[in-house]
Amino acid sequence: MKKLINDPFDTVQELFEGFVSANDHLIKQVGHRSIARIESPIAGKVGIVVGGGSGHLPAFAGYVGKGMADGAAFGNIFASPPAKPVIEATIAVNSGAGVMYTYGNYQGDCINFDKAQDHCRELGIQVQTVVLNDDVLSAPKDQAHKRRGIGGLFLVWHVAGAKAEAMASLDEVVAVTSKANANTRTVGVGLTSCTVPANGKPTFSLPEDEMEIGLGIHGEPGIKRVKLRPIDSVIDEIVESILADLDYKGSDVAVLVNGLGGSPAEELYLVYRRVSQILKASNINIRFKHVGEQVTALEMAGVSVSLMRLDTEMHDLIKNSVVDTCMYKKI
Amino acid sequence: MSDVTGAKVAKSLLLVAKRVEENKDYLCELDGEVGDGDHGVSMTIGMRAVTRAVNNLPDSVTPQAAFVAAADAYADEVGATIGPLYEAAFRAAAEAAKGKTNMNAIGDWAAVYEAMAVAIQVLGKAELGDKTLLDAFFPAVEHIKKLATGGGDLVSALESTAKCALDSAISTKDLVPQKGRAARLGDRAKGHQDAGATSLAIVLAGFAEAIKAG
Q: From the CB of residue A43, how many other CB atoms can be counted at a distance below 10 Å?
């Protein structure tokens, strides 16, 4: 293992301390491993609390700031945070207008965020939750509730954050976030494993000439291993499975080409090139796009492609949103 | 055998923590075959927190308070799925040990183990056969409950219960996972031994070893 770390068991605490001090113009620490926007609570605004395991930056804490999330809880590497930091973030962002939790669909996150939600409701805080499940290949369509949440959160949270920023009610923010999630699909492909610092060894091994389609953002196995081949044909397969899962024909869409942490931006543009060609040929209109590392898996090489189908409301929210967060800005 | 006091329960938690950490890499390896490879890390983080908490307990500690300290340690430090599951298990253990000044009887441990397994099932919503730690825990609970009705030696009861848990953990190789990240793999996870069931067997073996050592 070759990493810029001290004791591997101290990595999360130390990255948390560094993150807080590097972003102290935008956020404040509100608990052991929880942060909130520096202005929190913002009068009349629904607070959005996100979180999950560490190892995915910019997701999730990197999106705390204007236009996306109000608070975040840090877990250990690839492990959901306990309920406590979620509760701390909730209390810090609650203005009385209510708080929405939104996170990816993993058993650990569901258990810990639900526990925090129960606790905060007992304190009299209105809390609602939208769990994200955009990973097409992680479960068949008739079991979509079992699907994981991966890169699509980046698109969904634009819509959620913009709605909350417009001072919509908790019910309205929840409704549009659920709608955005229902219209978002993602497929990823991994080329290499990653190493959890406290583990010290790569999570899995992938032969030099193979790639894994449908790989999760924690190194969980995907649906199949295939021989390395030109990226265009891989992207054709990925985008085809997205388009087969939801009818995008003739629609407006938002697109994310997301690097998993170990693939250079140059390669991500090759991916975007192919995605845009396919969408154009399928009569799908790209209204918003982003190419870059957003929802990563430490140093894993690979990419995910997310498409969010837009109606007028979602289109206007994402187009007009202004985002100024710790690790992502959009004007 | 001397009294299994609260201080001895606390001491046994330290040995459990040590044995779990010694198996960190092995547990990660098992988990990496089908999950995200961090089970040994999460358990080690939890057990290090248990060690810190238990080291602060007074010698006069009750069995209940020792288990509460372990529950609080898991609650604050771990997260993931395993954090709340072990928190709930240790809290249930504390409840089952409530009012007791020692844990000398096989029935005391049967009650604690059963309470732990039930708490894990309630929170994790897994059934027997779902390829989770319950596939090691439930057979072990049945085993020790039977021994409790017959009376006999506590140390050998705890040892054979731990052996039962380990055998059951090894048998999870034949199961198809229904819970956690591994569930998304279906048949591809067959043939792999469940990491959570294995660490549970290590925990029970740690208790047996500590009580034997006195």
A: 9
Percent of chain A beyond pLDDT 90? 94
* Phi-psi domain of B128 (left: phi exceeds 0; alpha: psi -120 through 50; beta: other): beta
Joined together, the tokens standing for residue A42 give 């913002």
Q: Provide mean pLDDT across the span B96-119.
A: 97
Instruction: Choose the CATH number for A184-319 among 1.10.10.10, 3.90.550.10, 3.30.1180.20, 3.90.1570.10.
Output: 3.30.1180.20
Q: Give CATH 3.40.50.10440 domain extents, chain A.
A: 8-182
Spatial CB neighbours of A312, under 8 Å, sequence gap ≥ 6: none
Q: Please name the member of A138, A200, A218 whose beta carbon is closest to the beta carbon of B36.
A: A218
Chain B contacts to A (CB-CB under 8 A) = 25, 28, 32-38, 40-42, 44-45, 48, 75-84, 123-124, 179-185, 188
Backbone angles phi, psi at B159, to 5 degrees: -65, -45
Q: Are B206 and B12 in contact (CB under 8 A)?
A: yes
Residues B158 and B136: beta-carbon distance below 8 Å:
no
B6-213: CATH number: 1.25.40.340
Residues paired with residue B205 on neighbouring β-strands, in sequence order:
none
Active site residues of A: 56, 218
Q: How many CB pairs under 8 A join A and B?
A: 108
**Predicted complex ipTM:** 0.86
Q: Which of B34, B76, B185 sits opposite A82 (nearest CB)?
A: B76
**B110-147 confidence digits (pLDDT tens):** 999 999 999 999 999 999 999 999 999 999 999 999 99
Cβ neighbours for B139, distance < 8 A, ≥ 6 positions apart: B164, B165, B167, B168
Closest to B195 in 3D by CA, of B115, B85, B109: B85
CB B97 within 8 A of CB B103: yes
Tokens 């258990």: give the residue: A111
Q: A109: nearest CA in chain B? A: B80
Contact across the interface for B28 and A201, Cβ inside 8 Å:
yes
Q: In the CATH scheme, what is the homologous superfamily, with its name and number, of domain A8-182? A: Dihydroxyacetone kinase; domain 1 (3.40.50.10440)
